């Protein structure tokens, strides 16, 4: 993620307690949270690093952002003989609650702590100096002041690059010449998804029309409002769009439902993880692809760096070249005919021949 200025970042954290577009009380795909028996932290007993994973709102079981972080944690525990601690966030919690969560992990022996989401930037900045031997990372994070912490890494993503690829897919799949984008909250981070998507669509088909809707302008409920997501997407389908991409966290399940109701020949595109794999049986045939934001890769890489004694610090961006973003191909019947074209654009972005915009 490109570094925000101090003023814009501080303002943004107040408007974006849900980082990326994950983290909501709604489960995009309708599944229940994993059972306690599925918790790797309850069974891990190795002598490697002890990893703390502090979730964004919605926690493990969100079928998206938080679950991706957990997947990286699981891999790290298995490969590095690690143990782990998890911490759940609550909707609307105070900054002090996040600080306490991080502090408790450090005091309980965690040597690597990952805050899943933008909202942990301020709390990590407050807690990290008190634990200089502990390594901290913030997914989608920023440094809120001018004094860098030597034990903190800010793990960001080139969301615009992955969104460009699914924009190409949408334009190539569209028969109506109109596609749509639904964002959860209208802020700088989600605008990166919109910008990349529109750029990719217009690269593939310059005359394509892109309808854009945000569920909320600033209220974080936009990331946890399936009904709002459905209404926004339905409005775009009604305007002639036949493919709609969401960057709206838990609200995305409503976008999928809108595609189902729009009927055959209409499509939805998921985000963060391969949402085809966690969608309902009714939704699956309508999910064209998903923009993959590899929070699992970032979480794993951070744990790997700590295990190796060379912890990541400062700003790290995961882009197409690093397999930090991408697109899914699980719905092979829908996507197979498009992959050659999409991959050609991917190669051009990696080579630097295409610079993807970060603002609409």
Give keywords.
360 residues, alpha/beta, Rossmann fold, six-stranded parallel β-sheet, 12 helices, 12 strands, 38% helix, signal, membrane, BMP_lipoprotein
Report on the architecture of this protein.
It contains 12 helices and 12 strands. Strand 3, helix 5 and strand 4 form a beta-alpha-beta unit. It folds into 2 domains: 36-157 and 296-318, Rossmann fold (3-Layer(aba) Sandwich); 160-292 and 329-351, Response regulator (Rossmann fold, 3-Layer(aba) Sandwich), CATH 3.40.50. The chain is globular, with a radius of gyration of 19 Å. Helix content is 38%, strand content 19%. It is α/β, with parallel strands linked by helices and 360 residues long. Its main location: membrane. Residues 1-19 form the signal peptide. Residues 56-358 form the ABC transporter substrate-binding protein PnrA-like domain. Belongs to the BMP lipoprotein family.
């Amino acid at each position: 993620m490109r570094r925000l200025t101090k003023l814009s970042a501080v303002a943004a954290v107040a408007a974006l307690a849900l980082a990326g577009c994950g983290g909501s009380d709604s489960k995009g795909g309708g599944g229940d949270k994993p059972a306690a028996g599925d918790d790797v932290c309850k069974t891990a007993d190795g002598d490697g690093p002890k990893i703390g994973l502090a979730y964004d709102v919605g926690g493990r079981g969100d079928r998206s952002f938080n679950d991706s972080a957990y997947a990286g944690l699981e891999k790290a525990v298995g490969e590095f003989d690690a143990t782990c601690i998890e911490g759940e966030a609550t909707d609307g919690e105070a900054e002090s609650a996040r600080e306490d969560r991080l502090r408790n992990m450090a005091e309980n022996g965690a040597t690597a702590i990952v805050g899943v989401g933008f909202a942990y930037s301020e709390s990590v900045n407050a807690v990290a100096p008190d634990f200089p031997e502990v390594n901290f990372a913030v997914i989608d994070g920023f440094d809120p002041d001018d004094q860098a912490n030597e034990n903190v890494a800010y793990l960001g993503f080139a969301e615009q690059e992955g969104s460009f690829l699914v924009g190409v897919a949408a334009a190539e799949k569209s028969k109506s010449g109109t596609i749509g984008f639904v964002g959860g909250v209208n802020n700088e981070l989600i605008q990166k998804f919109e910008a990349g998507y529109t750029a990719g669509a217009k690269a593939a088909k310059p005359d394509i029309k892109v309808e854009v809707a945000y569920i909320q302008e600033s209220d974080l409920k936009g990331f946890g409002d399936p009904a709002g997501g459905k209404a926004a997407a339905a409005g775009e389908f009604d305007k002639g769009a036949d493919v709609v991409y969401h960057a709206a966290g838990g609200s995305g399940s409503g976008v999928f439902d809108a595609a189902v109701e729009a009927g055959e020949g209409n499509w939805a595109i998921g985000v963060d993880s391969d949402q085809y794999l966690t969608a309902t049986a009714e939704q699956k045939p309508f999910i064209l692809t998903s923009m993959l934001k590899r929070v699992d890769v970032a979480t794993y890489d951070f744990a790997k760096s700590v295990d190796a004694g060379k912890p990541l610090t400062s700003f790290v961006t995961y882009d197409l070249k690093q397999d930090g973003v991408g697109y899914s191909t699980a719905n092979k019947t829908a996507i197979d005919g498009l992959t050659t074209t999409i991959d050609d654009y991917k190669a051009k972005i990696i080579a630097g021949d295409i610079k993807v915009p970060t603002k609409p």
